[in-house]
Design goal:
catalytic activity, Diaminopimelate Epimerase, Chain A, domain 1, 220 residues, Phenazine_PhzF-like, 2 domains
Length: 220
């Protein structure tokens, strides 16, 4: 088995929960795309990151079934592990900052893979949802406290690759933030926490605006 580290990304304030992420620090040990895809499938995490240049922050991201140009929780996790001011992904350059124990990345909603953002009337409705059959990628959400920007969410990738529900998804949170145009505190899955905020005006609009996504990272 190729050497890799496992992190938990988007932990709650007590360091619990978070979405597990595999990181292969020595990307050169798996140089080709087919080998990386096979390893990501074997590991079985929602995403696996290959680090191709730790100094530049050059990374390559895979789910068990496909390569992604950008994804939120892999970028937050890789940024925490590498301690770099920026990451380079196929979608573009992702800036990084640390603040109060959180790692923040800034990316554009246009980089995120398509998601169906489906609003429900209450957190209880979201909690009660069964896992849907494979098909569309659904981000189910409801306001916990609209005035305070607190959201309850669950994510159903619908890919049929063994990941029936994603514990914490930065890209979907980024898309929801872009749609609502405001900072959010999202509780997802069993209790993972994702923080988001639009970057101030001057950095684009709509899906081209920069959105910050932040969270806590721990070793699994």
């Amino acid at each position: 088995m190729t050497d890799h580290e496992v992190l938990r990304v988007f932990c709650d304030p007590g360091g619990r929960h978070g979405n597990e992420l595999a990181v292969v620090r020595d990307g050169a040990s798996v140089p080709d795309e087919s080998g990386r895809q096979a390893l990501a499938r074997e590991l079985g995490f929602s995403e696996t990151v290959f680090v191709d240049d730790p100094d530049r922050g050059l990374i390559d991201i895979y789910t068990p079934t496909l390569r992604l140009p950008f994804a939120g929780h892999p970028c937050v996790g890789a940024a925490w592990l590498l301690g770099v001011p920026r990451l380079v992904t196929p979608a573009g350059e992702v800036t990084v900052r640390d603040a109060d124990g959180l790692v923040w990345i800034a990316a554009r909603a246009a980089w995120a893979p398509p998601r169906t953002l489906r609003r429900y009337g209450s957190p209880a409705e979201v909690d009660a949802l069964p896992v849907p059959p494979p098909g569309e990628w659904v981000y189910a959400w409801a306001w916990q406290d609209e005035a305070d920007g607190r959201v309850r969410a669950r994510a159903f990738p619908g890919r049929g690759d063994g990941i029936d529900e994603d514990e914490a998804t930065g890209a979907a949170a980024l898309l929801l933030t872009a749609r609502l145009g405001r900072a959010l505190t999202i509780t997802q899955g069993r209790g993972s926490q994702i923080l988001t905020a639009p970057v101030p005006a001057g950095t684009g609009s709509g899906n081209h605006q920069l959105i910050e996504v932040g969270g806590r990272v721990r070793r699994a």
